[in-house]
Amino acid sequence: MFEAMGSAAGHLLVPVNIAYIFLGAFIGLLFGILPGLGGVIALALALPFSFGMKPHSAMLFFSAVMGSVAFGGSVTAILLNTPGTAQNAATTLDGYPMAQQGQANKALGISATSCGLGAIFGLIVLILLLPIVRRIVLLFGPPEFFWLIIFGLVTVAMAARGSFLKGLTAGGIGILLSLIGFSDVFGVLRFSFGSKYYLWDGVELISLVIGLFALSEVMNYYIKGGTIASKEAGRGGRVIDGVKEVFRHKKCFFRSSAIGTIVGIIPGVGGTVANFIAYVIAKERSRNPETFGTGNPEGIIAAEASNDAKDGGALLPTVGFGIPGSAECAVLLGGFILHGLVPGPLLIRDHLDIVFILIFGLLFSNIIASTLGLLAANLLVKVTFVNVRYIAPIVVVLCFVGAYAVRENFWDVVAAIFFGIVGYGMIKFGFPIVCLVIGYILGVMAETTFHQSLMIASGSYKIFFYRPISLILMAILLAIIAFPIVRALKKGKDNEKK
Amino acid sequence: MKKSNSGAIFFNALIILFIAVICIYALDYKPRVRLVPLLVGIVSLVISILVLINELYPLPVFGKIELDLMSPLEEKEGENEQQAIPSKMLAIIFWMIGFMGLTLLVGFYISIAVFCFAFLKFQEKVGWLKSICVTAGIWAFVYLVFTVVMELQMFEGVLFGAILQKI
C-alpha cells in the first residue's frame, strides 16, 4: 500500500501532471459556478480531452475536475441562491441568507474551509477503509437502498424551507415526474401524454434543475428588484471569520464529514442526500436550531463538509466494485474504461497506485479550488451587489444555452421555461423546490429498488421490515419525523400555559 | 393565523389536478407497472388536499407543526411576495418567452444579442453604453465557452434551416 502511495506521489511531481491538476481544478470550479452545468457535464466534456494523456495524468485530471466542482457550486448557492450543482442545494438554506445580510465573505470562507477539510476527511477515511471496502458495500441490498432513499426524501422535506406537508407534496411530484418516460424495469413508456420522442427518456434533469432553481430565482429577484444583498446591511464579514467558524464548530464539521463519507459509500445515492441529512442532523443537534435557514454558519458547514467528504466515500464502491458511488463516478468509470483500466477488486490489487492518484488528485484540487475561492472571495461577493437588472438577462441567457447544451435539443429550453414558471409558483406559495428535485433524482431509484426487493422476496413485503440495516434506517427515520413534531406540539402547549 | 390566498389556492388546485391526472393515467397500466406511481400519487394527493384545506381553512394543528419547521426567513419572504408587482412578473415571463421565440426563429447568436440589448435598453432603461457592453460581454462569453471550448453546435433558428426535433 505504501509502495503504491509513493508511486502515486511520484506522479504528482511531474510538471505536466501539476498543470493538469490546475487545469482540472479551474474547469471544475468554472462548471461548478455556472448554474446548470455540474460535475457530471464537466467530467463528460473532459473525457474526450484526455485521449492523448497517459492514464495516470488522465486520472489526475478527472479527479481534479471532480474535486473542485462542489466549491464552485457553493459560490453561486451563497451569492445567488442558485446552487451551481444540485449537491449544493442545502448550502442555499443558510449561505444565501448570510449573503443577504452582507456576510457573503464570511459564508464563502466557511464554504471554502469546509470543502477543503471535508474532502481531506473523506479521503483519509477512504484510505483507511480500502482494505475492507468489499464487506461494507455488500451490507446494502435493494431493501436497504429503498429505505435509504425514503430516508433521504423525508429528511429533505423536513430540512427545506417551507412546511413539511408542502415539502412532502413537492417530493411526491418529483417522484411522479421521474417516472415519466420509458421504464427500464418494465419496458413500457409511461405518462408520456402522447409524446413519443421528447419524453422517451423522461423529463430532462438539467432543464428541470435550470428551470426550478435558476429561472425561478431570476424571476423572483427581478420582481423584488434592487441587489441580491441589501446595501444597508453592508459588506461586513471577513473570509477569515468564516475560516474560524469551521474550527469553532468542530463537532458539526466532523459529524457532517462522517455523514458525507458514509452516504458517499452507498452507491448511487450521492451528495444531494448527504448534505441534506447532514443539514437536518446539524439543525437537530444545534443549540440554536431556530436560526437555521436565516444564515447559521453550522448550516453551511454541514452542507459543504458532507458534500466534499462524500467524494472520498463515493470512490470506494467505484474503484472497489465498479459500481458508481455518485453520478460523477459513473462518468469517471467511462474514463477508466477509456484508458484501459477495469475498476473492481483487480484494480485495487494490480493498480493501487491509480486509486491513490485519484485520491491525491481530489485532495489537491480541493485545496486549489478552496484557496482560489478564498483569494477571490472579495471579488466574487461583488456579484451580490450588482443590480439584478444586469444579472437577470445574463442568467436567463446562460440558463437557455445551458439547457440546450446538454442534448442540443431546443425543447429542453421550452421545458426549462415551463419549470421556471412552476418554480416561481413554488417559491411564491411556499413549496420547497429542493424537495421536488430530490424526489425527481431519487424517484426511479426508489421504484427500481422497491421492485428488486420484492423480486428477491418473491413478492413478500416483509423484506422491507426484518433486515437489520433496514430496521435501523426505519428507526432513525421515525425518530427524525417524530422528534420535531413532538417538540413543536410541546412548545405549543407550553406557550398556551404561559 | 394565515389568511387564505386565491393565488395559493389556485396553485394548490393545479398541483392536485396534476397528481390526479397521473393517478388516472396509472390505472391504465398493469398492476406491477402502476404500483409505485399509484402509491406515490395517492399519498401525494391526500397530502396536497390537506395543504389545500389548510389554505382554505387554516387549522391550528398545522400551524403548530409548521411553525417549528418553517424558518423565520420563509415567513418574511412570504410577506414580501404578497407585495410583489404582478406587472413585473408578467414582464419577465413575456421577455423569456419572447427570447425563446426569437431563438426558435433566428437562433441563439442573434437572439442573445437582441434579447440582452432590448431588455436592458427598453425594459430597464439602462444607458446605451452599458447595454452594449453587457450584451457584448455575455455574447462573447457564450461564444467562447460553448462554441470555441465545448465545440457545441448552437441552434441556428428555423429561418436559417435548423430543424426542430420531433416531440
Fold and architecture overview:
The complex is a heterodimer of chains A (498) and B (167). Chain A is mainly alpha-helical and 498 residues long. Helix content of chain A is 75%, strand content 1%. Chain A has a two-stranded antiparallel sheet. Chain A starts with a helix and ends with a helix. The model of chain A has no long low-confidence stretch (mean pLDDT 81). Chain B is mainly alpha-helical and 167 residues long. Chain B folds into two domains: 1-67; 74-167, no CATH class. Chain B contains seven helices and no strands. Chain B has helices at 6-26, 31-56, 60-69, 72-82, 86-106, 108-123, 128-149.
Task: Give descriptors for this structure.
heterodimer; A: 498 residues; mainly alpha; two-stranded antiparallel ribbon; 75% helix; 1% strand; B: 167 residues; 76% helix; 0% strand
Summarize the structure.
The complex is a heterodimer of chains A (498) and B (167). Chain A is mainly alpha-helical and 498 residues long. Chain A is 75% helix and 1% strand.
